[in-house]
């Protein structure tokens, strides 16, 4: 007999989230730390309770090695849970039954994989379950569970209109409209992650939701990333297209394409500069947060740039260096935390110096005591300072 789970009624949390882990995940922390890290499942579950609690939500956790038990947990979640964070383990790659279960209950489900399933055996690249999920996160270690909880939180707090170009799944974005008739100014958001495939637009959800609440429309755009190595043309081209997409969206929604701000974080700031140069529509301003803006500052040992440029590293580096391509007539607000150890604050200082030397309007703000991530957390003092300069 299979024991069914009886979920306890909840007092009054904002959301009730189910954390579901599939086969072999009970082994976490005991083996293969080079692939899955050293955190145990019990620790992951406790961290997830804490991460959900920090957002005011309650989270319950369940793990099973049995497909049928997972299906029944999903069925039983109907009416009891508002969101599911689901690591289906290897069932992800085979189970149409789990796909159907997730689809049937209509509870927003984010699929999580700890490892980078796209960089391992070919059979791990396909997820049968992903089409039934609202989002997939992979390759960020156990932090991916936190990202999934946050994605569920932000989708619920401010549901976006998801629009894609139709020609590639990563040419897509989340549009959020503020209250009022418009036409609304638009902030195009371009996330960072050194152009790597495991980092996606959920990292800027917090800012997108906050900016929308402050009265501007937000277009949190995805773009194709690396691999394939040397994909700089598609990556930068997608960033430019994401800015131009505002014109198309304005045909359907009350947006003002003459008032576009492009906000980029980290490598997304690199794409904001290069994308603004390549776009047909001219943004009014750039907001560059903890940006990769001077490729000469990057550690030569860092593999991000060789990955972006591939065989063209030597010949084309200058073509993709923001400091050599400051857009003309576009004001920029350049912000860096002085505690940023992920991207050296010299990127921002050098970019602003180059911009002003060319007669462009560029303002540098150095935030004392802020790191790379404070800048994209709407709850931080850093973001409140940045928002104070924008509105
Ligand atoms: O990366 C993930 O989170 C996976 O869902 C983990 C599954 C794997 O089959 C998926 O392709 C990707 C494996 C679960 C953990 O298996 C372990 C095996 C040995 C030691 C520790 C865990």
Brief rundown of the structure:
The protein is an alpha/beta fold and 391 residues long. The protein is 32% helix and 19% strand. Strand 3 (83-87), helix 4 and strand 4 form a beta-alpha-beta unit.
Characterization of this structure:
The protein is an alpha/beta fold and 391 residues long. Helices cover 32% and strands 19% of the residues. The protein contains twelve helices and 13 strands. The strands form two sheets. The chain has an eight-stranded mixed β-sheet with strand order 6-7-9-8-10-11-12-13, with helices on both faces. Helix 8 (267-278) links the parallel strand 10 and strand 11 (285-289). Helix 2 (41-54) runs parallel beside helix 5 (143-157). The longest helix is centred in the middle third of the chain and has 19 residues, at 232-250. The mean pLDDT is 95.
């Amino acid at each position: 007999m299979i024991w069914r789970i009886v979920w306890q009624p909840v007092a009054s949390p904002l959301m009730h989230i189910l954390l579901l882990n599939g086969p072999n995940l009970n082994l976490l922390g005991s083996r293969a730390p080079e692939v899955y890290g050293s955190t145990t499942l019990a620790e992951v579950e406790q961290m997830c309770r804490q991460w959900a609690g920090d957002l005011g939500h309650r989270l319950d956790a369940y793990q099973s090695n049995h497909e049928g038990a997972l299906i029944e947990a999903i069925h039983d979640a109907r009416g009891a849970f508002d969101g599911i964070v689901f690591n289906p383990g290897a069932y992800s790659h085979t189970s149409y039954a789990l796909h159907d279960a997730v689809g049937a209950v209509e509870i927003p489900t984010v699929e999580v994989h700890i490892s980078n399933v796209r960089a391992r055996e070919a059979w791990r690249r396909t997820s049968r379950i992903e089409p039934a999920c609202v989002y997939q996160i992979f390759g960020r270690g156990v932090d991916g569970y936190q990202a999934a909880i946050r994605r569920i939180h932000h989708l619920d707090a401010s549901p976006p209109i998801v629009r894609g170009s139709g020609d590639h799944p990563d040419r897509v974005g989340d549009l959020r409209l503020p209250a009022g008739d418009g036409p609304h100014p638009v902030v195009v958001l371009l996330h960072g992650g050194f152009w790597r495939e495991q980092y996606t637009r959920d990292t800027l959800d917090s800012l997108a939701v906050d900016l929308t609440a402050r009265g501007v429309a937000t277009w949190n755009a995805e773009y194709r990333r690396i691999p394939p190595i040397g994909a700089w043309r598609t990556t930068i081209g997608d960033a430019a297209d994401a800015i131009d997409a505002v014109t198309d969206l304005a045909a359907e929604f009350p947006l003002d394409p003459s008032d576009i701000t492009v906000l980029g974080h980290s490598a997304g700031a690199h794409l904001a500069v290069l994308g603004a140069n390549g776009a047909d529509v001219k943004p009014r301003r750039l907001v560059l947060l903890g940006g990769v803006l001077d490729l000469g500052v990057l550690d030569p040992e860092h593999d991000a740039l060789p990955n972006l440029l591939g065989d063209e590293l030597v010949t084309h580096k200058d073509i993709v260096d923001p400091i050599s391509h400051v857009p003309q007539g576009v004001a920029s607000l350049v912000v860096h935390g002085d505690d940023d150890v992920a991207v050296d604050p010299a990127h921002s200082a050098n970019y602003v110096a180059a911009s002003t030397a060319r007669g462009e309007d560029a303002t540098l703000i150095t935030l004392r005591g802020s790191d790379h991530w404070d800048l994209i957390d709407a709850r931080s003092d850093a973001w409140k300072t940045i928002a104070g300069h924008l509105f």
